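Predict the holo structure. Ligand: magnesium ion.
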Amino acid sequence: MNDLFIEILKKYKSKEFHIAFVGAIKAGKSTLINSFLGRNLTSISVTPETAALTKIRASKDKDYIKLKFYNKKEWTNLWESIDESQSDIFKREYLALEADKIKDKWVGTEDKKISFDDQKEFKKVIRKWTSSKKAAHYFVKEVEIGLKDFSLPERVVFIDTPGLDDPIEYRSKITREYIDKANAVLVCIQADAMTGQELSTIYRVFSNTPHNPGKVYVIGTKLDNLNKPLIDWEKQRGEWLKRLEEDACYGNKELAKNNLVSASAYMYNMLKQYDNLSEETIDYELEPMTKRFRIKNIDDNLNKLLDVTNIAKIKNKIENEIINKHEIIFLEDIKEHYENIKFDLVNIFQNIKSENQELLQVADEDIKEIKNKKIESLNRLEESKKEKEELEETLTEVKNLTRKRSNELSNYIEDLL
Ligand SMILES: Nc1nc2c(ncn2[C@@H]2O[C@H](COP(=O)(O)OP(=O)(O)OP(=O)(O)O)[C@@H](O)[C@H]2O)c(=O)[nH]1
Ligand SMILES: [Mg+2]
C-alpha cells in the first residue's frame, strides 16, 4: 500500500502536462502556437514545414533549445522503415538537401542544450532544427524549446507536430503515436473546408484516443479565409457539429459544442504587431482580412478585431477547462487514496480489538494456550504499530502535498483572474 502511494507521489511530482497541436499539413498548427506564445517562434510556411516533434515549455532562466539526436540503431531502423514505405519523397528530399554529408556529425551525438539572449539567433536555430527545408532536422529526434516568458505553469508543455498526412510516413507516425500520450489535443482543421480528407483527420484523432474524447478540441483555423467569417462559420459549425456529435467522435452534443471553436491566429499575430507592420502589409494583407469581418477602421477597432480571432477565448479554455480540470482530477485522485488509507487504518485497529476480545473469551482455557495467544497478539500489535507509523508518515506527506498543490492551484487561479 505504501509502495502504491510512493508511486503516485512520484508520478505526480514528475507529471508533465502535454497539449499537442495536430492536424493536416498546413492546417495552421504552428501559427496557432505562435499566437499563444505571443511571438513568432515556431517555423511556419506555405509548404510542409514542421518536421520534428517540438516541445515548448517554460524556462526558469534564459530561452533555450534542447536537442535529442537519433542513435545509430534508431537511425538504421528509420531508414529501413522508409525503404518499406515505398515512398521515395524522403530520399529525394534527403539527397537534394545533401543531408548525408552531415549525417555522421549528428547521428549518435549526445543531447545538446543551447541558451540564447538574442531573439533573431534563437529563431534561426529553431528553424535549423525543426524545418523540413534544413538538412539538420533529419537527425534530430526531438526538439525542446524553453521560453522564459511562457505564460502557462511550468509543467505545461505545448507540442508542435508534423502534419498527420505528411507525405513522409515516419513523421506522421510520430504525430499519431503522440495523440494517445498527450493530455489534451488541439486538432487544427481549416475552417473553410470540411472535406472527406479533413473528416478522416478528425476520425484518426478520435480513434487514437477512444476512451477520452473530451481531451480533444477541434479548432476551425484560418477563420479569416471565409468570405463572411462570422456568418459563414455559424453555418459551417452546424454541419461540423452533426459529424462531431456522432459516436466516432464525441458521441455527445454538449461536449461537441463546447470543444469546437474557430480561430484566426494569423490575423491575431498581425494585430499584435500592428504598430510595426509596413503600410503595404496593412493595405494588402491585414485590411482585406478585417473587412471580411465587416470591420473597416483597424485603429479604432483593435480590441474588437482581436476578440473575433478567438485566440484569447481558446487560451482561456486551455487554462480553465484543460489545465485546471486536470489539476482538480489529480487532487481528487490523491484524496481518494487518502480516504482508502484511512479506511484501512480503521480496519486494522478493529481487528486488533476483536482479537483482544477473543483473548478474554478463552480465559477459561488452558493457561498455556492463553500465553501463546498473548504472545501472538503482542507480535501482531507490534507489526500493526509499525504499519501505523508508516501509514502516518505517508499521510503527512500526502497532506503536505495536497496542501501545497491546493495553494499552487489557488495562486494560479488568482493569477488568471
Ligand atoms: N489567412 C490565414 N492564414 C493562416 C492562418 N494560420 C496559418 N496560416 C497560413 O497557413 C500556412 C501554414 O501555416 P503553418 O502554421 O505553417 O501550418 P502548419 O499546420 O504548422 O504546417 P506544417 O508544419 O507544414 O504541417 C502559412 O502560410 C500561414 O501563414 C490564419 O489564421 N489565417
Ligand atoms: Mg508546423
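The pocket of guanosine-5'-triphosphate (ligand 1) is lined by residues 23, 25-31, 44-46, 48-50, 163, 221-222, 224-225, 264-266 (CB under 6 Å). Residues 331-416 form one domain.
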